[in-house]
Amino acid sequence: MAALDTTAIHSWHAHVYFDAASRDAAWAFRQVVDERFGAVIELGRFHERLVGPHPAWSYQIAFDAARFDDIVPWLVLNHGALDIFLHPNTNDELRDHRDCAVWIGKSYALNLDALAG
Length: 117
Hints:
Blueprint: E1 11-18, H1 23-37, E2 41-43, E3 57-64, H2 68-78, E4 83-89, H3 93-98, E5 102-104
InterPro entries: DOPA-like_sf, DOPA_dioxygen
Keywords: Dioxygenase, Oxidoreductase
Protein name: DOPA 4,5-dioxygenase
């Protein structure tokens, strides 16, 4: 297997999953994330429906690759009961979601058909 160049990762997305029962916790976590990292992240919409390949309601935390060491360890230690799907952004969206993702908490099966062009 040929090693891939990590400089291909230009950014990361952390998708925080929630449902009706964990909605308030997800919103509170979002506010804490925004207070702590708001200057260096972009928060996506709070989707109370399925979006793209995601099998649960979610919102996105987007950040540059250079911020990984600041943000990901904090998410790992502070996500509580919320599950987070973390993937890099390169020029291969399917591989990023299918082969290069990391789960914080419980993992889920993605709807990868949603990524097919």
